[in-house]
Amino acid sequence: MPTGMPAAPPPDPARRKRLWRLAGLTAMIVFIAGCAIALTVFLGFNIGVTGLLLGTVAALLPVPVLIGCFMWLDRYEPEPVGYLAFCFAWGAFVATGTALLVNSWSAYLFEGWGLSESLVAVLVAPFIEETMKTLGPVLLLWRRRREWSGITDGIVYCGLSAIGFAMVENILYLGGHGYAASNEQYGPASGAQQLLLIFIVRILFTGFAHPLFTAMAGIGLGIAARTAARPVRFLAPIAGLLVAMMIHGTWNLLPSLVAATGETVVLLYGYLGLMIPAFFGTVGFAIWLRGYEGRLTERALPAYVRAGWLSPPEVATLSSLGRRHAARRWAKRVAGDAGLRAMRNFQFAATKLALLRDGMDRGLFKHVTVAETEERALLDQITADRAVFVGRDPQTPPARWDGERYHITFPDGVSRPIDAPASPVVPIPITAYYR
What we know:
This protein is mainly α. 76% of the residues lie in helices and 3% in strands. The chain is built from 14 helices and three strands. It has a three-stranded antiparallel beta sheet with strand order 1-2-3, with no helix packed on it. The longest helix is centred in the N-terminal third of the chain and has 48 residues. The C terminus is likely disordered.
């Protein structure tokens, strides 16, 4: 190097990492968009533009309801919208397109072998469809493991993927097998009638089928995300995926049994004996699980109470959605809209802190210093959010929690220590000063 020439700056690892992440994100968006375009062209070519439009409108109707149900499960620690959109788009375009190709190719092979095409729905479709629907959340778990807080997240991510898959599949059934096929033979009136009949069966009665199947795989992924045991992290997703395939395959077997026996009552028995119990069992488990994971704050945050970072009433306000809502109303009453926003941020950060502490206790972090840095950032955020509404309630005396007792300033101006009650169940935080 010539004398006097400045040395080249060293490469910035953080900048290089950001560039790789941007490149990966761009590639994924282009890939999913390409699958969406190819699938749209395929459907339009096979069922016609009218069938595609009518099928799309009909298939979109249940989507907001189904997504709302899964969002209701995830109210304690809502997942980033971008990750939810990724899972939905993956299921709608990548999983559906791949399954359509594999199922069509398998039907061609089965026909050449002299086998019934109905076997594809029993032997091939459950395997490829459940695998592809689950693959998107698996990629998310691999690249964004920190965003998985438990089984509920697994159910939500896999459920969104399954909703996207079911939406596009319904377009094919409603617009193709429903409207287009009947319209070609008997006219538009018959096509509309057939579309309505398929809508009643596939949407109103079995619209929950695909989310139900893939939720089994989501349970396995959620278990794997919150354990440090390598065998469990490997076997739990496989077990969940196998259960999803078995339920899916059993459900697809019923129409074949109806065709073989001529007894349509078999389908009714299968619906009442398999789908309904599985549906209500999964819903009951998900509701119980939401409450259990919602009470994680009661199990993980007492350490911060003893250290003086949180007060017992603050932890008590996080244990249920009702108490969280009451705390938000209180914050808005004493500090306006800014207080409401601060309380929401406070609750979200406290929930993230509980998940982080639980993960540290489980040994989920290879680099403890990274977790400790995030822990300190969350504690600082909690302190900053609290400062927006603390001391604003004129009915609450100034108080300080030191980790063992309250130091409350009485009307005479004297601060006196007060022991904490055995069950701090007040629905709003006390006014407090923290380090």
